[in-house]
Design brief:
396 residues, alpha/beta, Rossmann fold, 2 domains, seven-stranded mixed β-sheet, three-stranded antiparallel β-sheet, 29% helix
């Protein structure tokens, strides 16, 4: 009997390990699941440099398989992902395939009716990182709006969220709605793009609470808690896996006087400012870098602060919460408290309240509230979001 039980648990252990060790396959990689669906249709792609099948750009791969791609729509940072944050991107023509590329981050925010007259369906395939202020979920929203308005179906080739384990932060308040925050969600939502699209539909966030017709190709062998290393960096300033994992925790520093390393080749992995000299030994110097950041905060000045390039991000995964200690620490260390949140002191695109989604967090940091007190103020909104989120999940 004991031998039978032992053999059972050995078999179960090997089986479980085999199940969990299967490679993650993105929606785009599961070609057999959607290629027949695209064949014979005039297709428009919403893609960028992260849109790959295997290691090959999706555009090239689909064209070689006989898919009729009539145009490409590119988001922030452009179709090739080489434009700086916030930089307007113009229309162009893909030099390799000759397909027209229309920008969704310039005068046009979503596909226009005249853009879709020769289109049967759209395909959305862009890697996201799971943060509210990362603008690709805004692009998704606007594309869904356009599909509804023009009676087009949207195919979503889903991709893992590298921060899929993290659901945390204050819920965006309505009066702080902006280009870096369109939805009443926390800072980190822990969803894939396809799950988020289902939430947009289900919560009636489209105009007149319309519903976009979706055809979702799921990720295979994926769970939200699984680590996922991105094969292609999603934007110029998220150029390492470390920066992607730290991004939800430190992007709100963009609304402060503290540099997050824009203007270096290791953005979103360092924090500092000239006024912190003498308080920290580590320093870095932001400079103008074309395609990454021109005229960065504290340009050509030595910034002193924290070096997080070797920080063990497993600690973040273990806690399952946003790190507030860096924000509290840097505020306490900064000598001129009145300048810390003063948006007039720098040229970044977002002020702190819009990035955090609430005025409360700034006020709480200034008032010296503890982390426990700050987190308590996120309720009941955060718990309500977590409950609502469950309705739209496609993965455990």
């Amino acid at each position: 009997m004991r031998l039978t039980i032992l053999l059972f648990w050995l078999f179960f252990g090997f089986y479980t390990q085999a199940q969990t060790s299967k490679p993650i396959l993105t929606g785009a990689d599961r070609i057999d699941e959607y290629l027949p669906y695209l064949k014979g249709k005039r297709v428009a792609l919403v893609v960028n440099q992260t849109s790959i099948i295997g290691s090959r750009p999706s555009v090239d791969s689909l064209v070689s398989r006989g898919v009729q791609i009539v145009k490409i729509f590119g988001p922030e940072h452009g179709f090739r992902g080489n434009a700086s944050n916030g930089a307007k991107v113009g229309d162009e023509r893909d030099p390799k395939t000759g397909i027209p590329v229309l920008s969704l981050y310039g005068k046009r925010k979503k596909p226009l009716p005249e853009d879709l007259t020769d289109v049967d369906l759209l395909v959305y395939d862009i890697q996201d990182v799971g943060a509210r202020f990362y603008t690709y979920i805004n692009t998704l929203h606007r594309v869904m709006e356009s599909c509804v308005e023009n009676k087009k179906e949207l195919v979503i080739l889903d991709r893992p969220n590298p921060n899929g384990y993290l659901v945390d932060g204050p819920i965006l308040e309505d009066h702080l709605h902006s280009g870096i925050g369109m939805h009443r969600i926390p800072v980190s939502h822990g969803m894939t793009i396809a799950e988020f699209a289902q939430m947009i539909n289900g919560e009636g966030w489209l105009t007149n609470k319309a519903t976009c017709q979706l055809h979702i190709v799921k990720v295979a062998n994926y769970r939200h808690e699984l680590p996922y290393d991105l094969p292609v960096m999603p934007s110029p300033n998220l150029n390492t896996q470390q920066s992607i994992l730290l991004y939800p925790h430190i992007c709100w520093f963009e609304g402060t006087i503290i540099s997050q390393g824009r203007g270096t080749y290791f953005p979103f992995t360092v924090l500092g400012a000239p006024a912190l000299k003498g308080k920290y030994a580590f320093s870095f110097k932001p400079v103008s870098i074309k395609g990454m950041k021109e005229e960065p905060l504290h340009e050509n000045q030595d910034c002193y602060g924290l070096d997080l390039r070797k920080y063990d991000t497993r600690q973040l995964r273990k806690s399952g919460r946003l790190n507030l200690q860096w924000l509290i620490e840097m505020y306490l260390a900064y000598p001129d408290k009145d300048r810390f949140f003063d948006k007039s002191q720098h040229k970044e695109i977002g002020e702190f309240d819009k990035l955090s989604g609430t005025e409360q967090l700034r006020e709480q940091i200034i008032a010296g509230k503890s982390e426990a007190e700050i987190r308590k103020s996120w309720e009941p909104g955060l718990s309500q979001f977590k409950t609502m989120r469950k309705k739209y999940l496609l993965y455990p």
